[in-house]
Amino acid sequence: MLQPVGPVILAIESSCDETSAAVIRNGKVLNNIIASQAVHQKYGGVVPELASRAHQRNIVMVVEEALTSAGVQLQEMDAIAFTRGPGLMGSLLVGVSFAKGLALALNKPLIEVNHMQAHVLSHFIDDPRPAFPFICLTVSGGHTQLIIVKDYLDMEVIGETQDDAVGEAFDKAAKIMGLPYPGGPLIDKHAQAGNPEAYSFSKTSMPGLDFSFSGIKTAFLYFIRDERKKNPAFVEENLNDICASIQRHLISMLTDKVVQASEQTGINQVAIAGGVSANSGLRNALKTLAGKHGWDLFIPAFEYCTDNAGMIAMAAHFKYQKGLFTKLNVSPLARMPV
Ligand code: KG4
Ligand code: ZN
């Protein structure tokens, strides 16, 4: 007997500085096309106006590539999905307007996706898939959240940053050292050849399961400034050790709270998601903790850590199953709770 073919959905992601499109068929992500924006590098961070313009330039190309590589036509889509928020308003507007135009022209339903929920749901793209409930540490350039995931679309934030996101802390530390944006992956690379115990910085801890990264950022800024006064080439001569040391601190601030969350909730299935989950030090630290505490640990493939439409497609699939469609008069949300 022929198996019924599940829904085919085109998903679009444009919340920050990656323009991405993906096609999902019957719950299987067929591709994940990403156009990154190098234009921000020389400014030391994402410039929102430039990001919107680059999305506008790239979006037709990434959508066409996603359709071609999946071997499907636009007319075959059962729905069009897009990131509604959170993110940069101008960036979101490009994806939302494009998705609306397609849905209108094709007379197909629209599905809005919450970007942070999608980061969590990237765990359902490939095996092994976590079982419910699980704890997810979602760490990106804009967010640092501890979430209890009760079901595909039922999530509760149990802790979050009260100031900077951890990805922002990585990027700012890199900027202080004169490294280009985004500095997180560069710190990771240099840290692998450095001594994590070489330097210490004072860090502030928030009560409960919340995070704060502004204190360590300031401590790091003063540390580098003072060392440079003594030796102007301090950073260049000790880059690997400095990167390893600041990375060790940032990671321990994350993992301390994951341990606390697991103890507090009794949940021993732990997942990480978001751009910073690509960090090798964080992955290794969590693997060690998983062994010690008996956790089942879930780490997404690198491709699905940073912003991508594959995860938006996955979230859209679950929303399609529940008939959760969006009206054509929808507008993006720069802030959008999980
Ligand atoms: O999820 P994402 O792609 O975009 C946002 O939604 O913010 O995350 C981007 C963030 C940036 O701050 C970047 O520096 C950080 O993730 N990041 C890393 C690594 N790869 C990306 N931080 C540390 N180590 C990495 N390997
Ligand atoms: Zn993200």
Q: What can you tell me about this protein's structure?
A:
The chain has 338 residues and is an alpha/beta fold. The chain folds into 2 domains: 8-121 and 305-321, 2-Layer Sandwich (Nucleotidyltransferase, domain 5); 128-300, Nucleotidyltransferase, domain 5, CATH 3.30.420.40. The protein has helices at 48-70, 89-106, 115-121, 166-176, 184-191, 214-230, 234-265, 280-293, 309-321, and strands at 8-13, 18-25, 28-29, 33-36, 79-85, 110-114, 134-139, 144-151, 154-160, 269-273, 296-298. Helix 7 runs parallel beside helix 8.
Mean pLDDT: 96
Task: State the helix count.
Answer: 9
Summing up helix and strand content along with how strands pair, one would put the structural category as: alpha/beta
SSE sequence, one letter per element: EEEEHEHEHEEEHHHHEHEH
Task: Give the tally of β-strands.
Answer: 11
Strand content: 15-25%
Major sheet characteristics: 6 strands, mixed
Give the distance, in angstroms, between the N- and C-terminal Cα atoms.
40 Å
Proportion of residues in helical segments: 40-55%
The second-level CATH architecture of the largest domain is 2-Layer Sandwich
Instruction: Provide the gyration radius in Å.
Output: 21 Å
The unique ligands bound to this protein are: 5'-O-[(R)-(carboxyoxy)(hydroxy)phosphoryl]adenosine, zinc ion
CATH topology of the largest domain: Nucleotidyltransferase, domain 5
**What is the CATH level 1 assignment of the largest domain?**
Alpha Beta
Unreliable parts: none
Q: Give the domain tally.
A: 2
How would you describe the shape?
globular
CATH superfamily of the largest domain: ATPase, nucleotide binding domain
